Amino acid sequence: MSNINKNRSALFNKKFFLITLFSLLVTFIVFLVYLDSQIRTTFDGKKWSIPSTVYARALEIYPGAQLSVKDLQSELTLLGYQFVEKVSKPGQAAIQGSKVTLYTSGFQFPDGHEPARNITLHFKNDHIETVNNDDGVSLLRLAPVVIGGIYPAHNEDRLLVQLDEVPASLVAMLVAVEDSEFYDHYGVSPRGIARALVANIKGGSISQGASTLTQQLVKNYFLSSEKTLSRKVQEALMSLLLELHFSKNEILEGYINEIYLGQDGPRAIHGFGLASQYYFRQPLQDLSLEQQALLVTLVRGASYYNPWRHPQRAQDRRDLVLDITVREGMLDADLAASAKKVQLNLGDKSSVARKRYPAYLDLVRRQLKRDYDTEDLSSNGLSVFTHFDPLVQSSAENSLSNMVSKQKKSVNGKNLEGAVVVTRPNTGAVIAVVGGNDARYAGFNRAIDAQRQVGSLIKPAIYLTALQDSEHYNLASRLNDDQYSLPLDNGDVWTPQNYDKQFHGDVLLYKALANSYNVSTARLGNTLGLPEIINTMHKLGVEQDISALPSLTLGAVALSPFEMAQMYQTIAAEGFYTPLLAIDSVSDAQGNMLTRYPLQVEQRFDSATMYMLRHAMQAVTHEGTGKALEWLLPDFSVAGKTGTTNNLRDSWFAGFSGDMMSVVWLGKDDNSNTGLTGSSGALRVWSNIIKQRSHLTIQNIPPETIDIGWVDKDTGVGSQKSCPNAIPLPFLKDTAPEIEIHCNQGVEKVLGWFKNILN
């Protein structure tokens, strides 16, 4: 009986073993099929999530262009040009006084290809005087500056290259150092494993790996970096499968584009193509032998061999890379010896790392989301062309930071912040955005998100509302600036005060705006009606809902600098509303146009009314609260408005020239006192930007429906031009006041008497 049980038990164990073995085999096959499917579908399709690249505007080069040698040098520096004594290849420039020779880099724009050209420029008085090149083209564009990217969640960035674009010497060094048997194995190297096993047994720990290039690619592309037996087995299986389906060249190209080679802030540098630009600011195919060797050095440890932090360590490893390649018979010994004599010569990292413009990129992302989803923006390699002007941005950043630094010495200067928005009046193009004092900080974007009381910046909307009522108001209308009290619905009484704590009696309408009188403005606004003022604000471009409170007339409404820029953009554009746009166009990875963002224009105010408002805003800058601009911008006509809120919490200035509109805000995040008025704070930042970057004064040409009449500057009564108190003001045709003041009436009578005698 016991033998029967033993036989049954043995049979059961055998069946159990076979079933278990079969189950394990099926599981392994299923797992293998899964791995095979993962490799084929992923590696054969879109291998990487390629970030969108965001470009600045392209700098145009032509005779007569307003551009200094200094500004051109700044632009070329951002583009990564090398400054040499004699140019010989694309990406080089030579500056000799007022003469600049440069070999431009070609670029594929959405509207066509701009070829590389060797050109010579001559400058005179901050203008390009002549443009000389071999093909006789007088108008050309530099490649646009890369100002950032829209990355996937893991913040990887790469510049894809094909294997035939990679120098053969770099491939040789990579194979010699990382996997000398690459062309002989099938994904896993038995000899490499045996060699590493012996070394690890002798060392008593895992001190040497045996990963082939294929295994490294699998680990980086498909797997995590954990060191477990199961992961190593999976890595080996996937490597064998990868070699089964793809050629050595395809695997090598994948490795060259995948490998991690450095860190630029939050941006991870992957692939040799981008690493070449990051470390040397040159295309991969233009690198010298020693530069190629340094990139191969970084494969073994981008942080450990960081050439800026550990230059000697990096150079020693670079030389070892060259020696190993010679030893493997893949590099001439004399070439290696010459390369080893060259120092790293990377320069300062700050001059190599990509400059970041987080506030502007934030605006770009928000506007792109109207037409593209996040996946498209972060993975499809789109090219986003914007209106961003790096030269204007630099002036805006420096002007703001200089003001903040200066104020730190004062009692109220601690923790002062600011924001700047700059646009083109004729197009609505946003050319610069500064989101805070630290322009590189990708945090709270004050230019777009800071909701602040706007103070007197609201007043042009009130006076525009009045001027639209031409039967009752013009620039010479007399407004009452005596004490004003308004009973409120809750039983309180609102009694506004002027900034100077004085009352000014009857004042002309344009003077009330120029001097930013609160009392007369509050009386005017509440007489016109708050709904009418809110309607004007909406027509000017303010989109958010606004509460109809009497204090609205003095700017008791919270808006962002960007919203104020939209409002003043319409005024700068003479009553034509154009949505503020950061983006010009978007193209796909092949250069095909996907979306163009054309100029959109809608006339919302008649030209005559807007002309009169702009005339009054010019008065702000030469006789009103902004009269400091008379000496800050001598002989340069502009228009604008200061803004100061209660307890000096906010300092504003918004204004425009003929080619530039800008809004500047200064304040503190905790809403405390800044010690600054609009004139003493924001106006100074604004004027510095305009002084550096604007080239055209305001062009306020009266339309045919406007007449110029002369009035007494105190009473608004019609006056002869020859009277000492007379000033010219624009009026709608046939509405100028009758002349009541005659200063030369007696002279006219005498002249008439003599005329009659002579006749």
From TrEMBL:
<feature type="domain" description="Glycosyl transferase family 51">
    <location>
        <begin position="154"/>
        <end position="323"/>
    </location>
</feature>
<dbReference type="Pfam" id="PF14814">
    <property type="entry name" value="UB2H"/>
</dbReference>
<dbReference type="InterPro" id="IPR001460">
    <property type="entry name" value="PCN-bd_Tpept"/>
</dbReference>
<keyword id="KW-0812">Transmembrane</keyword>
<keyword id="KW-1003">Cell membrane</keyword>
<keyword id="KW-0511">Multifunctional enzyme</keyword>
<feature type="transmembrane region" description="Helical">
    <location>
        <begin position="16"/>
        <end position="35"/>
    </location>
</feature>
<keyword id="KW-1133">Transmembrane helix</keyword>
<keyword id="KW-0573">Peptidoglycan synthesis</keyword>
<comment type="similarity">
    <text>In the N-terminal section; belongs to the glycosyltransferase 51 family.</text>
</comment>
<keyword id="KW-0328">Glycosyltransferase</keyword>
<comment type="function">
    <text>Cell wall formation. Synthesis of cross-linked peptidoglycan from the lipid intermediates. The enzyme has a penicillin-insensitive transglycosylase N-terminal domain (formation of linear glycan strands) and a penicillin-sensitive transpeptidase C-terminal domain (cross-linking of the peptide subunits).</text>
</comment>
<keyword id="KW-0961">Cell wall biogenesis/degradation</keyword>
<dbReference type="Pfam" id="PF00912">
    <property type="entry name" value="Transgly"/>
</dbReference>
<keyword id="KW-0121">Carboxypeptidase</keyword>
<keyword id="KW-0808">Transferase</keyword>
<keyword id="KW-0378">Hydrolase</keyword>
<dbReference type="InterPro" id="IPR001264">
    <property type="entry name" value="Glyco_trans_51"/>
</dbReference>
<dbReference type="InterPro" id="IPR028166">
    <property type="entry name" value="UB2H"/>
</dbReference>
<comment type="similarity">
    <text>In the C-terminal section; belongs to the transpeptidase family.</text>
</comment>
<dbReference type="InterPro" id="IPR050396">
    <property type="entry name" value="Glycosyltr_51/Transpeptidase"/>
</dbReference>
<keyword id="KW-0133">Cell shape</keyword>
<dbReference type="InterPro" id="IPR023346">
    <property type="entry name" value="Lysozyme-like_dom_sf"/>
</dbReference>
<dbReference type="Pfam" id="PF00905">
    <property type="entry name" value="Transpeptidase"/>
</dbReference>
<keyword id="KW-0472">Membrane</keyword>
<feature type="domain" description="Penicillin-binding protein transpeptidase">
    <location>
        <begin position="418"/>
        <end position="657"/>
    </location>
</feature>
<dbReference type="InterPro" id="IPR011813">
    <property type="entry name" value="PBP_1b"/>
</dbReference>
<dbReference type="InterPro" id="IPR012338">
    <property type="entry name" value="Beta-lactam/transpept-like"/>
</dbReference>
<keyword id="KW-0645">Protease</keyword>
<feature type="domain" description="Bifunctional transglycosylase second">
    <location>
        <begin position="61"/>
        <end position="140"/>
    </location>
</feature>
<keyword id="KW-0046">Antibiotic resistance</keyword>
<comment type="pathway">
    <text>Cell wall biogenesis; peptidoglycan biosynthesis.</text>
</comment>
<dbReference type="InterPro" id="IPR036950">
    <property type="entry name" value="PBP_transglycosylase"/>
</dbReference>
<protein>
    <recommendedName>
        <fullName>Penicillin-binding protein 1B</fullName>
    </recommendedName>
</protein>
